[in-house]
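[agent] plan:
  1. take the single chain provided in the ticket
  2. run structure prediction with default settings
  3. attach structure tokens to the ticket
  4. add a short note for the reviewer (M.T.)
[agent] executing step 1
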Amino acid sequence: MAIAVRAQSFTLSGKVTDSDGNAIELATVSCLEQGAVTMANLKGEYSLKLHTADSVVVRFSMVGYQTKTRVLRRPRSNQRLVIQLAPMEALKEVVVTEKRRQTTATEQLDVNNIRQTPSTSGNAVEELVQQQAGVSTHNELSSQYNVRGGSFDENSVYINNVEVYRPLLIRSGQQEGLSVINADMVEKIGFSSGGFEAKYGDKMSSVLDIQSRKPTRLEANVQGSLLGGGIFLGYGTPKFTMSHGLRYKTNRYLLGSLETKGEYDPNFLDYQTYITYQPNERWTLDAIGNISENHYNFQPKDRETSFGTMENVKTFKVYFDGQEKDIFRTLFGMARVTRHFSPQTKASLLFSAFHTKEQETYDIQGQYWLDDTQTQEQLGVGTYMEHARNYLTANVQSLKLMLNHKTNRHDWEAGVTMKWEKIEEQAREYEMRDSSGYSIPHSADRLDLIYSLASKNTLKSTRIEGYLQDTYRFTTEGERPWYFTLNYGLRISNWSYNRETIVVKR
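[agent] step 2 finished; step 3 output follows
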């Protein structure tokens, strides 16, 4: 026996209008449960055939109008619905804020990005710079970066118009754990990847210009993680402001995942302060202080590696002794006195000093065995040893006079800087290799080192630098202002360089 069952159906028709009774063209009428949909015609009329059910949900929608839903209870005959759709709510108030126009090759970066983005290395400002066009980096745990193919030490860094220095004894790029820039104390970030003003000197890659933040009230910030932490405290009144920042960082847990296993114990400590005082409208005093100490301790561990084919497997074992200890201590300070002759004219006198004392010491010995796993035959044995005692001390002082004057169309800036530099370096390194009865280089009557270096260098210099910059604004009828900048730079150097070096290298 065959029984045919046909579901009952009905037709839903009607019209879609707005709140004033005007037809809404091409409105969408749909029943999602049954997969049925149609559109209203140019008069707002629609017709949709649906199946009868306990409840049928019909949806009416149109762009720019609020969506409505109707539920039909057990519809059995044709239904007619006239639906009115209310317009969408008006957009909320839009606030347009002014953004400073870029009138030079120096681009202003958004400071809020460094406060909202997590940082693994603790160098949030440098990580923001590394995202700019033409900038690359080869070490995600360092603040160093390369611009347009230049080396990392060709990038100038200025804090409150004073050039700051970083550790100078460079070997693997790992010694700069924390940069001198504390993200909690930054107000403005200017970055130029080329074509920058003459006031930034003559380094050819880039310029990073930092302006410190002045708190307006009591504020504090505390953060911490397995990689370190930091404390920031700021206080400000109309005449006096101060900021203090203390940071600590360690890369021990990150470095533990490297292929070269060992006991990594790098730790970095940094304290920075910025104080300003304005007794009246004519005078302003401010000062910056920074103390940092970076330690790097490393003890390599034994390692075993297997290689070859399935039928010919060999093992390579290396046993290590010794350790490496590096210390980098830096001090930086700046004091500035500013005289405001008028709202358009001011003069500033700045004095800064930088001191670094760095040492790189290690004695590491490695001994290896090369074996055949099938025959247990010893294919080779050897040893090598690396030794270094490198020390560097640097002192840099500078005195700078700046003048600023603004008119209706011109922004004038001029400056003269005198720098005194003294750098002393002592280096002693050697490497010995001995393997399977012969040494490298081989000699029948003596044991030679493959590499040996002993040097002592002293550098003293006195430099005078000056610059003049004019930014000219001009407009044409019905157009926005145009900016034209002229830069003039002058450098006079009186320097002496004394060097005594003994090098033996094979």
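[agent] step 4 note for reviewer: Residues 217-505 form one domain.
[agent] ticket updated
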